[in-house]
Backbone:
């Protein structure tokens, strides 16, 4: 019996010691906050965070990230400068270049390829690349309701920056593909056209030269080499075909009941409308246009899912 007691006592001592250690650990951890051990899952971006947009070539991407109260744009994995506000990403036709609106300290810019800034006064709209990607142009706000067209050769923006005179209202035209736009350029960017509205008449301006006034401008296109241009204009019941500002043909227009009034109304804003009233388009990899209200894109006070990219 003494031998059995001698064998049992050490075992009981070990068990008691183990229980004391476990009890002590529990007491020590009692006052510590419980750690969150839930599995890590991907979080859905909030409403202010953008989608990732792909250029039409499917290789180039752009998105924005928020840092504190500012935003920066990630273009093909490279982060650009931070701004108070960024919007309106626009790809060149081949998808290898990018431009977007940016605002910092109340000053607006158009940022090209995430590195070069062009002064855009208070606001910029309708950023457009020439088809060959050599030239960029946009409409800028200068004052409350005066607009100017700014263009530049991308490889030498400082030396080639050009600004048109200011206008009360720049209207929306149709390009050769039927898209609504404020600026139409020749393929190489050497020629630039836009439409203005003055005293209820519509005028075409090509490289600074102003046409006679019309009731409406229905379409506009440059020749492939950019040396010539053609557009259709309406005066009363007549539809005029005009080449290099010379009328080459005239036909009677259809009656108002036969016309597609939706196209006519979208081509030229009414005299009571504010300038940024048309839709804004740019291509993504699906080859479809994203159409958003221009009023929802260009100012830092805009809130909601349609305000930014």
Residues:
């Amino acid at each position: 019996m003494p031998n059995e007691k001698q064998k049992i006592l050490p075992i009981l001592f070990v068990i008691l010691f183990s229980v004391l250690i476990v009890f002590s650990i529990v007491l020590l951890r009692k006052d510590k906050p419980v750690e969150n051990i839930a599995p890590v899952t991907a979080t859905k971006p909030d409403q202010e965070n953008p989608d990732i947009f792909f250029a039409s070539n499917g290789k180039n991407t752009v998105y924005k990230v928020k840092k504190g109260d500012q935003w920066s744009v990630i273009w093909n994995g490279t982060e650009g400068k931070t701004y108070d506000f960024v919007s309106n990403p626009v790809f060149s036709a081949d998808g290898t270049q990018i431009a977007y609106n940016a605002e910092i300290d109340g000053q607006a810019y158009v940022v090209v390829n995430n590195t070069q800034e062009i002064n855009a006064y208070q606001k910029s709209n309708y950023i457009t690349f020439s088809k060959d990607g050599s030239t960029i142009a946009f409409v800028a706000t200068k004052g409350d309701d005066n607009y100017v067209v700014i263009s530049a050769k991308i490889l030498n923006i400082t030396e080639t920056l050009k600004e048109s005179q200011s206008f009360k209202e720049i209207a929306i035209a149709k390009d050769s593909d039927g898209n609504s736009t404020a600026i139409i350029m020749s393929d190489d960017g050497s020629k630039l056209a836009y439409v203005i509205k003055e005293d209820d008449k519509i005028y075409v301006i090509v490289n600074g030269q102003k046409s006679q006034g019309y009731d409406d401008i229905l379409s506009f296109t440059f020749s492939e080499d950019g040396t010539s241009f053609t557009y259709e204009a309406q005066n009363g019941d007549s539809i005029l075909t005009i080449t290099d500002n010379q009328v080459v043909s005239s036909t009677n227009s259809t009656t108002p009941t036969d016309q597609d009034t939706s196209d006519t109304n979208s081509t030229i804003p009414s005299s009571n409308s504010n300038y940024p009233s048309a839709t804004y388009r740019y291509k993504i990899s699906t080859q479809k246009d994203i159409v958003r209200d221009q009023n929802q894109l260009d100012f830092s006070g805009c809130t909601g899912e349609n305000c930014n990219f």
In short: Residues 134 and 230 are 23 Å apart (CA to CA). The radius of gyration is 31 Å. The chain has two domains: 44-166, 169-271.
